[in-house]
Amino acid sequence: MLSNFLDALAAVLAGNAIYFLIMPHLPRNLRHAMFKEDWGLVTDFAICTLLFIAIKLIFRRRPKS
C-alpha cells in the first residue's frame, strides 16, 4: 500500500511540475484558471494519469512465489 501511495505521489508531483512548465505554451482553453473546473484541469489530470501508468509499468512489482 505504501508503494502505491509513493507511486501516486511521484506521478502527481511530476505531472503538476510538467503541466506548469508547459502551461504558458498551451492554447488559452487548455490553461487552468484558479478555482474553476476547465480543460486545463483535465489536461493536468491526464498528464498525472499517464505518468502514474508509466511509473507502474516501469517499476512493476513481481509477486513473490
Structure in words:
The protein is an all-alpha fold. Helices cover 63% and strands 0% of the residues. It has helices spanning 2-22, 39-58.
Features:
65 residues, mainly alpha
Helicity, in percent?
55-70%
How big a fraction of the residues is strand? Answer: under 5%
Order of helices and strands: HH
Coarse shape: elongated
Structural class computed from helices and strand pairing: mainly alpha
Number of strands: 0
Mean pLDDT over the full residue set: 92
Q: Could you give the distance between the termini? A: 19 Å
Question: Biggest sheet: strands, sense, closure?
Answer: none
Helix count equals 2
Radius of gyration: 14 Å
* Overall number of domains: 1
Any low-confidence stretches, pLDDT <50, length ≥5? none
Topology, element by element:
Layout: H1 2-22, H2 39-58
Helix pairs in contact: 1-2
Nutshell version of this structure?
α1 packs across α2 (39-58).
